[in-house]
Amino acid sequence: MALVFEAETYEILGACFEVYREKGCGFLEDVYQECLEIEFEIRGIPFVVKPPLELEYKGRKLRKRYEPDFFCHGQVILEIKAAKSIDDSHRAQVMNYLHATKTRIGLLVNFGHYPKVQHERFIL
Fold first, then answer.
1. What is the domain-level CATH number for residue 116?
2. For residue range 66-120, what is the model confidence (pLDDT) as tens digits?
3. Cα–Cα distance between 80 and 57 in angstroms, integer?
4. Could you list the residue range(s) of the whole structural domain that residue 23 is in?
């Protein structure tokens, strides 16, 4: 059984691994975000940085917008962290964003972990 958007998520994670290989852990999230923008451009991965996505509540649009760190390939939310480790609040954040935006695939990538980048894949 094939994974949903397998090739796209593989490309995105490959770029994340390269950023971690170059920078390691210990920087703020903004540094990793900027590095990923460069790496995505180099690899030809289509992305939008912090696109404002609409949210609803009981059929009404909210004024507040959600801005994921990246929206890649027009169908994958990428949320990045620079924390000691991924915890349940990070997982809940990604799942909430998937539900709220009706996006099927989310990636959670943590650059703050040593000795390697942590990543999890979420499917709605």
1. 3.90.320.10
2. 889 999 999 999 999 999 999 999 999 999 989 888 899 999 999 999 999 999 9
3. 26
4. 6-123
Does residue 1 lie within any of the structural domains?
no
Alpha-carbon gap, residue 87 to 75, rounded angstroms: 24
- The model's pLDDT over 41-54, given as tens digits with 9 standing for 90+, comes to 999 999 999 988 88
Residue 38's identity, in one-letter code, is I
Would you say residue 64 has pLDDT above 60? Answer: yes
Residue 87 maps to a domain: yes
Q: How many domains does the chain have?
A: 1
Q: List Cβ neighbours of 44 (8 Å cut-off, separation of 6 or more).
A: none
Helices (H), 5-110: 6-23, 29-43, 88-101
